[in-house]
Structures are given as structure tokens and as C-alpha cells.
Design goal:
131 residues, Arc Repressor Mutant, subunit A, two-stranded antiparallel sheet
Amino acid sequence: MDHRFIVGRFISLGRIVEETREDYYRVLKTCSTGWPDRNEVLPWWNYFLTIVRRAYVEFADNVDRGEPHSGKSNLVEQAAPAMVGDFTLAELHAQLPSVSLPTIKKVLLELKSAGKLKLIGRGRGARWQVL
């Protein structure tokens, strides 16, 4: 059954590792001590499982709150309706360089379906209009 939840795509294990970088390097040091004669993998395995569990909890919290979009999708949802006059995909992407083009396109189509935007034209010359 499709409940239209897409939050799973936006839970980043890399971000969680970056946020716990001190633990990551501590665990790597512990595991590499005595290498190559001895390799203790258990500390790394525990760290990895902690990261996966934290990602799962974050995912579950997002689902419980009913948040179907990531922060980047929210950026597009706020920026697109605030554009003055007609705008192109490239113009919106220039204002949101950290957001991928596929994410911007997806959110623009959702806003179009919701009756908040109108698409004028096709291809590179296409323009979006706030309704």
C-alpha cells in the first residue's frame, strides 16, 4: 500500500556520521590498533548500528509528524511562491543551489497539482507562474 511517504529518501546516513565525527574517528582508531595482526571489528559494528538506529528514529519521527518532505523540498515550497513574476526552473535553481534539479522539478509539479503554480510552455523556455 502506498501512503505517499517519501521521507526515507531524505534520511542521510552520511549526515549522521558527520554529526558524530569524533565518535567515528575514535572507533576507527580503536579498530585499527594492532593492524594487521589484530582487527577488532566490534566497536565499528556497534557504531554503525547506532547510526542506523538513529536514522530509523529520525525517519519514524518524520512519519509520525506527517512530514513528507525534506528541508530542501521545504525550501522550494517557500521560494517558488515568493518569486516575483514568471520564473524559469534555472532561475529558481540559481536561488537554491543546494537543492538538486530533480527535487525542484518534483516540488514544482506538486505545487502545480495543488493549484499554486501554473506551467507556461515546455522545455527550456518553460516558465512557471504563481497563481
